[in-house]
Amino acid sequence: MSRTLQSPADRLAALPGGTFGANLTAAREHAGLSREELGSRAGLNAATIYRLEAGDRQPRLPTIIVLAEVLGMTASDLIHSL
Question: Domain 18-80 class?
Answer without folding.
Answer: mainly alpha
